[in-house]
Amino acid sequence: MSKFTRIFAVVLALMPMTVNAQEAGASRDTIDGQSPDDFYCGERRLGQWFYCSKPKPRETRPASPQAPEPSAAERMAAIAKELDELKARAILDPSEENVIAYVRFQREQLDRASTFADTWQRALWQHPDIDYTLQRPVSTVGKRAWLDNRKADRDAVLTSLSQRYGLFYFYAQSCGACELFAPILRSVADSHRMAVMAVSMDGGPNKEFPNYVVDTGQRARMGLTGNETPALVLFDTQTKRTIPVGYGILSADEIMDRIFMLTNTKVGSDY
User: What is the rounded CA–CA span in Å between residue 220 and residue 239?
Assistant: First the structure.
């Protein structure tokens, strides 16, 4: 066989493969159109990895909406509601089962409250910045020491207040409470050298403050309404501002505490 003959024979042998390849390309186009090739997909069963059958997409079910978690306040309200229901049920139908259910549920809440109180106390011990008792002690020894220090600071401040502040004392001769209050105010004024201007609302005298004046509109000009007596008002000579101290009978300690708080403490700092 000549060389040309052999080459021709090889070409003839390869022709079916070329045709098959072309048919395979055509069949692939057909496969994409959902028509699988009989030879590759039927006889040889090559499966979806050779594009014989497209995999079916997985069906995705829409996720069912989940209810939001209840807040802590809602949980507390539910507990209170359940406790009230169990209590009412035990009272209206006091069977052993109902009473035990109520007592057990109530005990659970008492245990929870005890745990909270214990944690609260431990937190205060370990975090002094949130422990109010360091500012205002509640123990007997601590409270006594705090009061002594407070009294010393108060007395020192009140003694120096006389250079800036004075007191207006509104009274009436017919006022029985004024007769009791006047000697108390006199003792405070003398011990701290504070000037007091007594103002008579009805024109009557006052034996504790003989240098009194009769009200001719002073009270109204200070912005005080009504005619309640006795009435004590602090006057700031620098700012020309009036600061009501109190009405009715006050003890000496009350007078000094109020003046000290109104002039030397910030609102909310003492409680």
Answer: 18
User: Going residue by residue through the chain (271 aa), what tens digit of pLDDT does each one get?
Assistant: 555 455 545 544 555 544 444 444 444 444 444 555 555 565 555 555 555 566 667 777 776 777 788 899 999 999 999 999 999 999 999 999 999 999 999 999 999 999 999 999 999 889 888 888 877 777 888 878 877 887 888 877 777 787 889 999 999 998 999 999 999 999 999 888 889 999 999 989 998 999 999 998 888 888 888 888 999 999 888 888 888 999 999 999 999 889 888 888 777 666 5
Distance of CA 83 to the CA centre of its chain: 25
Tokens encoding 220: 């109204």
Q: In what order do the strands lie in the sheet with 196-200?
A: 213-214, 196-200, 165-171, 231-236, 241-247
- Tokens read off for 268: 């909310």
β-pairing, 165-171 vs 196-200, is parallel
What is the amino acid identity at position 86? Answer: L
Pairing of strands 231-236, 241-247: antiparallel
